Amino acid sequence: MLWIPDIIIQEDASDSGSVIKGPHLTLNSSGWVFSKAQQRLTYTCQLNLVKFPFDTQSCNITFTSMSSDVHTMKLGTLTNDTALTALSELIMITKGEWSLRSMEVVRDRTTNGTKSYLIYMITLERKPMLYVVNFIIPLSYLLVLDLASFFISQSSGEKLSFKVTILLSISVLLLILQDMLPSTEDSLPWIATYCVAIFALVGISVLEAMLVSFLTELGHQCGKKAKGSENAREDIQLEEDFHKEPSGDEERGKVTPEKTYMPLDWPVAHDLLKRILDEVKAARLQAGSKDKDKNERGCCKSLALTVDYVFFFLYLITVVLFLMIVYVSWIKTGF
């Protein structure tokens, strides 16, 4: 009979059906006996996802005996850490989104002098390129598009709808992020902070576009009312001048021809004066066309332009500072 030690893995969460023991033993001339077993291991590991997807995780695989104490059985390894890491990389079939960074061994560690523990400290590094291409870069691109939307003319009416479209696109990416991250994480990951911050910045930009649109429309309404009132006053004044009746002395014919301001042929002179005054009115309107935009703009439109310019510069500074902080604190540490 051959005694095989009862070695277990403490972090093992797989069933017993995943273990396949080799049917043969190897015995060499020095007295060493080798027994082989294959196991698909499912084990628990506490992950720190603060820097996801630029995170590096360290997990332990602990070997110990169920019944034997440290005096009966002492666990150890035949190879050093470097050889073990190289061998593990060689025989790994599927790596998925992880790459093996290192594997360290803590030899013969005991707890209260009762049992011997052999601990493999495995360091895994996530491959972030998939998340960068599908998630981080599109969010940055949407933020740049929101900055570029400030150059869209407010009079076109497409600026606000364009910003709302960007906000809806970010909302779709937030739904994808919900499926990526586990809900049991205590601290907020950097990628969630990144998404929420961009969503908040674009949301504030949409509110600013609504305010500017309201002020611009209010300025147009005020300009139209002021222009209509001015034209009405001018028309009334001209009508009073044209249709002003002669005085009592003129009706009685007591005014001498030398002191009469109107020609003797009154209907023809009236038409002539009306044409002259129409030409004067047209010339006056043409001379004031240079200041038309300024008069229509009014105080509301000037305020809208000031708010738009000031907000753009503050928004640009905030975005640049935010991207710098994200790069230094999150992305740079992952490469």
TrEMBL record:
Gene3D superfamilies: Neurotransmitter-gated ion-channel ligand-binding domain, Neurotransmitter-gated ion-channel transmembrane domain. The chain crosses the membrane at residues 129-148, 160-178, 190-215, 309-330. GO terms for molecular function: extracellular ligand-gated monoatomic ion channel activity; transmembrane signaling receptor activity. InterPro entries: Neur_chan_lig-bd, Neur_chan_lig-bd_sf, Neur_channel, Neuro-gated_channel_TM_sf, Neuro_actylchol_rec, Neurotrans-gated_channel_TM, Neurotransmitter_ion_chnl_CS. One of its GO terms (cellular component) is membrane. It is a multi-pass membrane protein. SUPFAM superfamilies: Neurotransmitter-gated ion-channel transmembrane pore (SSF90112), Nicotinic receptor ligand binding domain-like (SSF63712). Residues 136-217 form the Neurotransmitter-gated ion-channel transmembrane domain. Its main location: membrane. Belongs to the ligand-gated ion channel (TC 1.A.9) family. PANTHER family: NEUROTRANSMITTER GATED ION CHANNEL. This is 5-hydroxytryptamine receptor 3A-like.
